[in-house]
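User: Could you check the structure of this?
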Amino acid sequence: MCLAIPARVIEIFGDERARIELSGVQKEISLSLVEGVQVGDYVIVHVGFAIGKLDPEEAAQTLVTFAAMKATHGDELPLTPPLA
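Assistant: Sure, the predicted structure tokens are below.
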């Protein structure tokens, strides 16, 4: 199972690399697959690469969903969403 997460870009380096932040954790990633990323943008990150940009509202909604899942399930997140 693969998971791509939204993260906020906090610094951009000249070699198609950026520093992102998610829940206080910072990581350096590649921007080589996405054009036009600026500091403050939200990107979807998968295995160290930004694979797309996100609207800030969509990123916030996704992060709220992840936080709710963690609050409900802790570190044992379900592999499939619950049925409504």
